[in-house]
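Typical record was shown:
=====
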Amino acid sequence: MAELDADLGHIIPSSVLAPFWAKLVVGFVSLVCFARSYDGDFVFDDSEAIINNKDLRAETPLGDLWHHDFWGSRLSSNTSHKSYRPLTVLTFRINYYLSGGFYPMSFHVVNILLHGGISVLMVDVFSVLFGGLQYSSRGRRLNLAPRSSLLAALLFAAHPVHTECVAGVVGRADLLGALFFLLSFLGYCKAFRESNKEGTHSTFWVLLSILLGAVAMLCKEQGITVLGLNAVFDILVIGKLNVLEMVQKVLHKDKSLENLGTLRNGGLLFRMTLLASGGAGVLYMRWKIMGTGPPAFTEVDNPASFADSMLAINYNYYYSLNAWLLLCPWWLCFDWSMGCIPLIKSAGDWRVIALAALWFCLIGLICQALCSEDSHKRRILTLGLGFLIIPFLPASNLFFRVGFVVAERVLYLPSAGYCMLLTFGFGALSKHTKKKKLIATVVLGILFINMLRCMIRSGEWRNEEQLFRSALSVCPLNAKVHYNVGKNLADKGNQTAAIRYYREAVRLNPKYVHAMNNLGNILKERNELQEAEELLSLAVQIQPDFAAAWMNLGIVQNSLKRFEAAEQSYRTAIKHRRKYPDCYYNLGRLYADLNRHVDALNAWRNATVLKPEHSLAWNNMIILLDNTGNLAQAEAVGREALELIPNDHSLMFSLANVLGKSQKYKESEALFLKAIKAHPNAASYHGNLAVLYHRWGHLDLAKKHYEISLQLDPTASGTKENYSLLRRKLEQKQKKDV
C-alpha cells in the first residue's frame, strides 16, 4: 500500500504520520466537531430512554436490566420494541448515579468522549484494512498505510451523519456497539500476531473476539455483524483468497481447484467454524431472551414493508437515501417517518433514477473488487464494501422488518466503509491527475465543511425547539415533525401556535392519533369541548386500545355533563391499561361530582396504590372525608399521605385544616407554618391559618395572616368577611378594655 500512501503525500504531511500525533489529531478533530453538544438538554427519545426509564434508578434491582428492553419495558410484553441493550442501560445508570440525578451534561460528555475514542481506534482499524496485517519481530503491528489510515479516520471523525449518535444521548447504544465492534475486529487481528507460519493462529484471541462481538450486541444489535466482517477479513487478507480466480476455476472445472491452498487451510476452516458457531449461539440466546418473537411495528413506522407492490423498489430507494446521507450529509433530520419519504408507486417515478444510480455505483465497485488485477485494490475495495454493507444488514429489512424508514444512527459503523472507499478514491484520482494541489484543496475543503456542519448540527441537537424546527425544511411532509414542534410549543404555554402545528400533523396523517389526542387536550383546556370530543372519539375509533385518549375523552364528556358516557370511557381506558392511576383519579372526580362518595374514595385509593406519590388523589380523599364530617378518617388518610410524600405542602395544608376542625390547634399550626414556608405566596394558606388563630383566640396573629392573605388575593370574599368579623371583635374588645 505504499503506492496509495504516496499518492496521498501531498494531502497528509509527513509530520503527523507518527502514530501518537496521528491519533492526537483525529481525537482533537472529533472533539471539536461535537463539543457544542456537551451542555445540551435531554431531547427527543432521551426522555423515554433515560428520564422515564425506571431501570436507571437505584430502587430498580440490577437484575431487571437483563429482562427489560432499552426503554425499560419487560421483554415479554407484546408492546416491547425488543431492543435488548442492557449494557448501554447500565452505563446510563452509572451516569445517573455518579452525577447524582438527571443532569444531561455528564451524559453528553461521555458520548463525546466515546466518539473521540472510537475515532482514534479507527486509525488502527484503517491501517489494517489499507495496509494489511504485518508484525515486527517484536510482535508489534506495522502501519503500512499511515496516510490512508489517517485521512480515512479524519473523514470518519468529522462526518456529520454521526451527530445523532453523539449529540443524542440514546445514541450511546450505537457508540458502545461500535467501540466493542472495533475491539472485536482488532482482537481478531491479534490472533495472528505471533504467526510465523501460514494457517497458525491464537485460538484465545479468536474466542475473545467472539466474546467482544457478543458484548457489542448487548450494547446495540448490529454489533454481532463484526463476526461477519472478521470472516471476510480472514478469507481475503489472511487466507489471500482470490474470489475471481476461484470462480473462473469452478466455471472451467479446473482440477487445480482441488489444490487451492485457501480451501485446504485447516486453520481457516477451524476459525470459520468458531465464528459461525459463536455467532449462531449468540443469536439463539438473543432470540430466546426476546421471548415473544419479533416486535410488532405499524405502517407508520415503516410504510414500505406494508406496501402491496413495489416493495423491493422502495427498499432500494431507502438504501439510496442512506447512501446520499453518507455522500452529502447536509439534509439531516431527527426522524424520517410519517410521510417524510412518500412511497414509490410506479416505475415511472423519477426517484427510480436514485436507486439505479446506487446500483450502478455498487456494481461498478464490486466488479473492480473482483476483477482488478491489482491484489491490493481488490482487497481494499472488498473490505471497504464489507465494512459498508455488513453492519448495515440488520437495518436493511432483508431479514426482518425494522421500525424506521431511514435512521442516521444506523450509519455510524457503515460510514467507516464509506470513508475507506472515499480515501481510496482520492488516492486513485490523485494518481491519474497532475493537479494534485487541487485534489488536496478538495479533500481539505470537504473536511472543513464537514467539521462546520457537525458543529452546526450539534448546536441544533442542544434543545428540542431547535432540533424539531430544523426538521421542518428537511421533511415538511413528516407529520411527526409538526407534532413535535407543536408539543414543544404546548409545553412552553404557546397553545395557539401549538394548535396550528397539531392541525397540520393531522392533515398530513389523518390517522395520527397522538396528534389528535394532544390537540383534543388543548381544545379541552380552552373549553372548545365539542371539537375536542370529536377528535378524541375519532382517535379511539382509529386505535381502540389508546388508553390515554379514552381517559381524555372521559374528561371532556364529564365537562359536557355526559356522566354515563364519561364513566364508560374511563372504564375502557382502565381496561386497556390496568395500571392507570391518573384515570382512577379522574374517575374518582366523576363519582364525587355524582355524590357517589364511596366509589370516589375507592377510585382515589386505587390511584394511590398504583402511584403512592399521587398527591392529587390523596388530597381529594382528605377533602372529601373532611367535607362529609369524617374527620378521624380524614386525619388518618392525611397522616398516611404525608408519610409517603413528606414535603408536599398541599397535603400539609389539607391535613392542617382537618386538625384545626378537630381542635388540635398546636399540630395544625405547625403544619400550616410548614406549608407556608414551602409556598409563602399561597393566599389560602395564610387565610386558613388566620381562621385557625381566630378560633384559637390568637387574634393578633389572626389579623396578621388575614392581612397577608388579602395582600396576596384582594378578591377573596371569604377572607374579607372573616377579617371584618375579626376587626369588629377587636374593636369590641378595645371598648371593653377602655
Summary: Residues 680-737 form one domain. The radius of gyration is 33 Å.
